[in-house]
Design a protein that fits this description.
The chain has 258 residues and is of the alpha+beta class. Helix content is 28%, strand content 24%. It contains three helices and eight strands, in the order ααββαββββββ. The radius of gyration is 29 Å and the shape is globular.
Length: 258
């Protein structure tokens, strides 16, 4: 019994000694580090392009809705909801141009959903306006309702992607800009793609040099194609009407909600 036990133990020992030992090499360590780094990068991309966008988009809309509520409380409507609305032409209030990163409005696009309410601020830098706030106003262009070109920019991907669905706009869709003074309704007209250096889309009359503006336009710009910056997608609209806050929200604000 002892001999059998001793013999079995010796064989096990010899077998264990015969198995090759795993050696840790620089190449192996480097490979594992690269795999780990790849997984981290992949997770970051997933976060930035999908999960993060959902969170950022919800935050933008929540901030815009909060601004709307604050303005509604500060400037309550005097319109009687029991009285039928009498459409009247009202001259738009022209607000002063905002300073860089100064919030001045909220954009509503019913085509993009009833909860679409993205804050607007001065400037179009990523660091101060487009990334942390949402939609930026090109300095030197017109303000809402003012004759000329009210030109704005926003991301089409990442950071909440406010203009992600810009290509889905249809002719006649309302684009409503809300400020403390009221609502400025534009109607979408056309869409085009231009080179990044084609800045004449920001002229008072888009792409028309030395032509005085007698109409108020809106120009919305973003990158194209998706996840690239080789072109710019540009959406144009024409001003339709101004609704003062005292008259209550216009019908265009809920028109054809997606």
């Amino acid at each position: 019994m002892h001999a059998l036990a001793g013999g079995t133990g010796d064989a096990a020992t010899r077998g264990a000694s015969a198995r090759p030992r795993r050696r840790t090499t620089v190449v192996g360590v480097l490979g594992e580090l690269l795999i780990t780094a790849g997984v981290i990068v992949l997770l970051y991309v997933v976060w930035q392009l999908w999960v993060g966008d959902l969170i950022y988009g919800a935050e933008r809309n929540a901030t815009g809705q909060q601004l709307s509520q604050e303005w509604a409380q500060a400037y309550p409507s005097t319109n009687d909801p029991d009285e039928p609305e009498q459409p009247t032409a009202v001259d738009p209030v022209i607000r002063p141009e905002p300073s860089d990163a100064e919030r001045f409005g909220v954009m509503h696009i019913p085509r993009f959903g009833s909860d679409y309410a993205v804050p607007m601020a001065g400037g179009v830098s990523r660091a101060r306006t487009l990334d942390p706030i949402g939609i930026g106003h090109y300095p030197g262009t017109s303000m809402p309702g003012e004759p000329g070109n009210f030109a704005v920019a926003a991301h089409r991907t990442t950071w909440g992607k406010p203009f992600n669905r810009i290509a889905e706009l249809r002719v006649g869709d309302p684009i409503v800009v809300e400020t403390p003074d009221g609502w400025y309704t534009y109607r979408f007209r056309t869409l085009e793609y231009v080179r990044p250096d084609q800045v004449d889309v920001l002229l008072p009359v888009p792409q028309q040099t030395d032509v005085p503006a007698g109409t108020a336009y809106i120009t919305m710009t973003s990158c194209s194609p998706m996840y690239s910056m080789t072109e710019r997608i540009v959406a144009y609209g024409v001003f339709e009407s101004f609704t003062p806050r005292s008259a209550g929200a216009p019908a265009s604000l809920t028109e054809g909600n997606a």
